[in-house]
Amino acid sequence: MRYLPKSDSERRQMLEACGVASPEELFSHLPEAVRLKRPLDLPPGISEYEIVDYFRRRAAENANGYASFLGAGVYHHFRPVLVDAVVSRGEFLTSYTPYQAEISQGTLTAIFEFQTMICQLTGMDVANASMYDGSTAVPEAVSMAVRSTGRRRVLIARSVHPEYREVLRTYARHQGMPVEEFGYQPEAGTIGLEDLEGKTDDLTAAVIVQSPNFFGIVDHAKAAAEIAHRRGALLIVVFTEAVSLALLEPPADADIVAGELQSFAISPSYGGPFAGIIATREKFIRQMPGRLVGQTTDSRGNRAFCLTLSTREQHIRREKATSNICTNQALIALMATVFMTVYGKQGLRDLAEQNLAKAHYLAARLKSRFTGRFFNEFVVQTNNPDAINKALLKRKIIGGLPLARFYPELSDCLLLCATEMSKRADMDAVAEVLA
Amino acid sequence: MIAKVRPHPSQNEPLLFERSSPGKLAYQLPALDVPSVDPATTLGPANVRSEIPDFPEVSEVEAIRHFTRLSTWNYAIDHGMYPLGSCTMKYNPRINELVARIEGLAWAHPYQPEALAQGSMEVMARLEAALAEIAGMDAVTLQPAAGAHGELTGILLIRALLEKRGNPRKKILIPDSAHGTNPATAAIAGYAVENIASSAAGVLDVAALARLVDRDVAALMVTNPNTLGVFEENIMQAAEILHAKGAMLYMDGANMNALVGIARPGDFGVDVLHLNLHKTFSTPHGGGGPGAGPVAVKKPFEPFLPVPRLKRSGKKWAYDYRRKHSIGRVRAFYGNFGVLVRALAYILAHGGPGLRNATVDAVLNAVYIRKQLEPYFDLPYTSPNMHEVVFSDERQAALGVRTGDLAKRLIDYGFHPYTVSFPLIVHGALMIEPTETEGKLELDQFIAAMISIAKEVEADPQLVKNAPYGTRTSRVDEVTAARKPVLRWKPA
Amino acid sequence: MYPDNFRYTREHEWVLVEGDTGTIGITDHAQQSLGDIVYVDLPKVGVRVELGKSLGSVESVKAVSDIYAPVTGEVTEINKLLADAPEKLNQDPHGAAWLVKIHLSAPAEAQDLMSAADYQTYIGVEK
Questions:
Q1: B479 interfacial to chain C (CB closer than 8 Å)
Q2: Is residue C118 assigned to a domain?
Q3: For testing the chain C interface, which of B483, B484, B486 should be mutated: the one with the most C CBs within 10 Å?
Q4: Residue A38: inside a domain, yes or no?
Q5: Which residues have a Cβ under 8 Å from the Cβ of B455 and sit 6 or more positions away?
Q6: May I ask the CATH class of domain B95-348?
Q7: Is the dihedral of CA B131, B133, B136, B137 positive or negative?
Q8: Domain termination site, one of A288, A320, A337
Q9: Scanning every residue of chain C, which has its alpha carbon at the shortest distance from the alpha carbon of A312?
Q10: Is residue C32 situated within a structural domain?
C-alpha cells in the first residue's frame, strides 16, 4: 500500500530485530477474547483514480451550477486563490499544534497576526486562536461570563441563530445554567428591549444578542449592553457574517464577542469545518478558553512567539480547566488570515459595500417583513415559500431559507441573502418569481 | 530589522502590519452590476464604522511571500517523523485534499434542499457505517468537531441514558494516566471526577475499580491501549464490573491506531467511544486543527444521539429531526464535513485488509523503537507495548538532564520532539509513537539520534540542556510570555 | 532560611501569627519546585478561608498548584505586589512576597502545624 513505506525485506529485518517471528506475534499478548476473528467487513482498497471518481459522483448528486440565495449562518463568498495556495503548503497543512515554539514559528506568527486582526475588526482587546465554530463559541463565552460574574442565568435573544441557541441549551443543561429567551420586535425585527429589561435581574450572568441578527438586521447591541451592565451582567455579542465587521460599527459595549469566520474564505463545505472566535476585554483574559499565542523573545533577544497562558487549559488544569477544548481550527484560521490579508483594510470595506448594494437591490424589489436596517440578509414575506422555492429551482436558483422550521410565527417568510457573488440576472429572476 | 542577507528560514520576515502601507492592495472585486448604495444612508450613520484601525494593506506578491516565508519556519510531517505519543501523526494523503475541494462537495450549503444534498448525505452515511464496523458499534454520530467535543457528546449520551433509567449519577472514574481532556470533559458534563490509580504494571487496577464502582458512578473513561501504549488486558472484566452496577464504559479512542482490524471496542465491552479522525484516520492537523470526533455507541444509546439523524426514505437520504430523546445539538449543522470526506477517502484507499496492515506496521514500528532504545533509556513499565512506547528520563535526570531538554536536542537532529512529560504516571516521560507511515530509514535515523543524545548527556550534559541550536529561534522565554502576556500587535 | 516564628504545613504553606492576624505565604521549598512563577490567583478581601481548603493558586508556565489555607479566618489584605511582579514569590517567599493577611477565627489552630525545625526535617525526608 502506497502509504506504508516499508518493503517486505525491511519488515523481515525489523521483525528479526524485535525478536519476533511473524507480525501476528506482535499481538499474541492480547487476550484471545478481545481479538477480532474475521476480516473487517469493508471492501478492499481502491486506486487514486477510483477514489476521485467516487467523490466526483457524490458531488454530482449535490447541487451544481445553481445560484444560491441562502445565508442563515453560512455564506457564499469568493475564496481568493491565494488562500489554497498558502494552506496547501505541507509546512502548514501537515504541521502539528505549535507546542514546540522553536520549530513552529510559522504557525505561531500567523496566529498572532490572526489574533491581532480579529481584535482590530471587533474592537476588543484580545482574541483567541479559534474555537470549533460560531455555535460552540457561544457556550464557551457563556462559561466565561459565569466564571467572571459568579452568576448562572443566561438570557439569549430569539433572533440569535436557532441552531446556536440549541447548542447553548445542550451545553447549559448539565451545568445548572438556566437559559431563557427574550423576543424581537414584530415590526422592526430588532430585540425587544422591554422584554429584555423585564427578564434581566441580579442573577443574570450574560445577555446574548446577535448582530446582524439571524434576520440579517443590525441589532441594538448598545441598548442591550446598557440593560445588562446596569444589572451587573455581561453582554455577549454574536456574529455569523464576518464580512459585516468591515462595515458595521464594532460592538464596543460588548464584554465578549463570539462569532463565526466562515465568510473569510472558508468553503461552506456542507456545514464544516469552520472557525469560531472569542474576543474579549483584557480583564477576562484568564477566563478565556482555547489557545492563545503570545509575543516574547528567545535567548538571543530576538522576537519570537509561543503558546501562552496554558495553565487555563485542559492539559494542565484538567477538571478545573476553562474548557475541555484541545484541537482548535488552526488551518481554518489561517485561511481567514490569508483572506483578510488579500482584501486588506480597503478591500474588506469594498467587499462589504458590494454585499450591501447587492442585497439592497434585491430587497427593493421584494416585500421585506421587517423595517429594521440590514446588511446582506433580509426576511421576505411571501404567500407560499415552498412553491416559490420550487419555481426558483426550475430556474436553477436555490432560494432563501423558509423560516417555518425555526419561527412558526414567520411560516410565510423566507430568509434571503445576497453577496458579492450574486448576479443581477439571478436577482431579477427571484424578483420575478416572487412577484 | 536585518536586511535580506540570509537564506529564508533565518530571514527576518516582519509581521503583516509592519509590511503594510496605505494604498497597497492584493484584491480586485468585479464592478458592481447593481447601483451602489451609501452605507450611512442605508444603515444609519451610527451603525457605520470608521476604517479598521491599523489593518494591514499589502500587495499580492508580498502576501504570498509573507506566508511562504512563515511556512519555512515550521516543521511538518512532510519534512519528517513526528514521534508524538497518542497524536498519531501519520502521513496526510494528498488525494484527501483534492476530493474535499470538489466543487459540488466544497460549495454545498448545509441548508440546501435535501434533494440537492444527496451526495453529501451518502458520504456521511457511508462513513458512519465504516466507522461502526471498525469500532464494533451499532450507531455513529459525525457531529462532534474534535476529540474533546466527542468526549463531551459521549458523556452527555451516558448521562441521558442513565437519566432515562432513573438516576444520572454523580461521578466519573478517570485513570491517573488519562489525557487532560477527560477530566475537563467530565466536569463540563456536570460530573465530579474521581481518580483511579493505575496498578503497579501501569494498567487498570480492577480490584480498585471493583471497590470504587457504586451506584453513584456513571462511567469509567478509559483509553485503550492506555497512554503507556499497553493494552488494557482486564478491559472485559472492567466492563463486567461496571455493567453489574449499571455503570458504563467510555473509551477515548485516541489510540485506535493500535486496534483497527485487530480488536474492536464494541467487542470488548465498550458502550460509547469517540474516534479522532485527525489521528487514526489521517486528516491533517494543519497546525492545530480542524479535527473531527465522531462518537460510536451501542444500541441502547441510539435514541439519544444528537439530532438530526440520517435515515433512508425510499431510495433517498433524509434527515430525521423527530428525535424526542436526543441530547440535542452539540454544534450547528451536521459535522466537520470537509474532514469527514478526507477520512472516508483514507478508508477507501486502504480498504479492510489495508487498514489492518496499517495497524500491524504501526505496532511493529513502535516495538522496533522500544527494542533499540531500551539499553539507553529507562522503561518504567515493561508490559508489551503496542503502537507507542513510554520511556522515562530517570537515567538522564541523574545527570541533571530532563525529558524536555532531550526533546529540544532531538530538534537539532531534524525531528520533532516526542510527547514530553505525559502521561502523568511516569515521571519525566518520553512518549513515542511513530505511526505506520514511517519507513525503516526514518526510524533508524530517529533511533540513531536518540542514542546519540543519550551519549551526549553522559559526555556533556550542558550541550543538551541548551538545545536547540539550529533552529530559527533558540529556546523561547515562555515565562515572560506568561507573566506579561502580549497577545496582539500594536502600533508603536 | 525558614523563620522560627512561622508555622508550616505539609502542603508547603507558612503562617505567621501575630495576635489574631495571620500572614500566609508559601515556602521557599514550594517556590523552588514550582519553578518560575508567572501568576498568583488570590481571593478577594472579605472572603472566608477555611483550614485545609484551597484559597487560590500559584502558576508556573506548565503547572498550577493550589494554595491550601493553614488556618481559618477572613481575608483582610492581599499582597498587591504579586499582581505585577509574580517573580517576587520566587525571590522572597518568606518576606516581601507574603500572599494574604487573615483575621483569624481560631488563632490556636496554628499550634497544630509544624515548627521550622520539623518542617526542615519534613522536606529533607520528602523527595
A1: yes
A2: no
A3: B483
A4: no
A5: none
A6: alpha beta
A7: positive
A8: A337
A9: C64
A10: yes
Stretch 230-259 of chain B: residues touching chain A, C-beta under 8 Å = 231, 233, 235-236
Q: Is A279 exposed, middle or buried (0-12, 13-18, 19+ CB in 10 A)?
A: buried
Tell me how many domains chain A contains: 2
Does residue A326 sit in the same domain as residue A183?
Answer: yes
Q: Are A312 and A381 part of one and the same domain?
A: no
Statement to judge: residues A366 and A227 lie in one domain: no
Please enumerate residues of C whose Cβ is less than 8 A from a Cβ of A: 38-39, 59-64
**Interface size between A and C, measured as CB pairs under 8 A:** 16
Chain B: partners with 3+ C-beta pairs within 8 Å: A, C
A107 and A192 fall within a common domain: yes
Task: Note whether A315 and A351 are same-domain residues.
Answer: no
Q: Could you tell me if residue C18 is inside a domain?
A: yes
SS3 B313: strand
Q: Omega into B423 within 30° of 0, i.e. cis? A: yes
- Specify whether A363 is located in the same domain as A285: no
Read off the CATH number of the domain in which A158 is found. Answer: 3.40.640.10
Q: Mean pLDDT per 10-residue run, chain B (492 residues)?
A: 52 90 95 97 96 96 95 93 95 97 98 98 98 98 95 96 96 89 86 91 93 96 94 96 98 97 98 97 92 97 98 96 96 97 98 97 98 97 95 95 95 94 85 96 96 97 92 90 94 90
For chain A positions 8-47, those within 8 Å of chain B (CB to CB) are: 10-11, 13-15, 17-20, 23, 26-27, 29-31, 33-36, 39-46
Tell me the C-alpha distance between B153 and B327, whole Å: 8
Residue-number span of the structural domain to which A329 is assigned: 81-337
Q: H or E element: which one contains C68?
A: strand C64-68
d(CA A24, CA B69): 46
Can you tell me whether residue C82 is helix, strand or coil?
Answer: helix
Q: B338 touching A, CB under 8 A? A: yes
In a domain, A299, yes or no: yes
On chain B, the residues whose CB falls within 8 A of the CB of C60 are 479
Write the CB contacts of A273 (distance below 8 Å, at least 6 apart in sequence). Answer: A132, A133, A266, A329, A332, B145, B289, B290, B292, B336, B337, B338, B339
The reply to whether A367 and A356 lie within a common domain is: yes
A126 and A275 in a single domain? The answer is yes
Q: What is the distance between the alpha carbons of residues A301 and A299, in angstroms, rounded to a whole number?
A: 5
Give me the residue label for grid cell 517567599.
C93
d(CA B350, CA B355): 5
CATH classification at residue A362: 3.90.1150.10
Where does a domain end: A337, A370, A390?
Answer: A337
Here the CATH number for the domain that contains residue C64 is 2.40.50.100
> How far is B463 from B466, CA to CA, in rounded Å?
6
**Contact check, Cβ <8 Å, C39/B478:** no
Q: Is B478 on the interface with C (CB under 8 A)?
A: yes
Question: Count of alpha carbons within 13 Å of B5, Cβ hemisphere only?
Answer: 3
Chain A residue numbers with beta carbons less than 8 Å from the beta carbon of B333 are: 73-74, 135, 163, 270-272
The count of CB pairs under 8 A between chains A and B is 667
Q: Rounded to the nearest 5°, which phi and psi values hold at C60?
A: -105, -175
Residue ranges making up the domain that contains C38 = 6-106
Phi, psi of B306 (to 5 degrees): -55, 150
Q: Do β-strands B429-432 and B389-392 pair in parallel, antiparallel, or remain unpaired?
A: antiparallel
pLDDT tens track for C106-120: 988 888 999 999 999
Class of domain B359-478: alpha beta
**Would you give the end-to-end CA distance of chain B in angstroms?**
15
Tell me whether residue A329 is in a domain.
yes
Q: Residue B234 corresponds to which cell in the numbers above?
A: 482486564
On whether ipTM exceeds 0.95, the answer is yes
Residue A55, in any domain of the structure: no
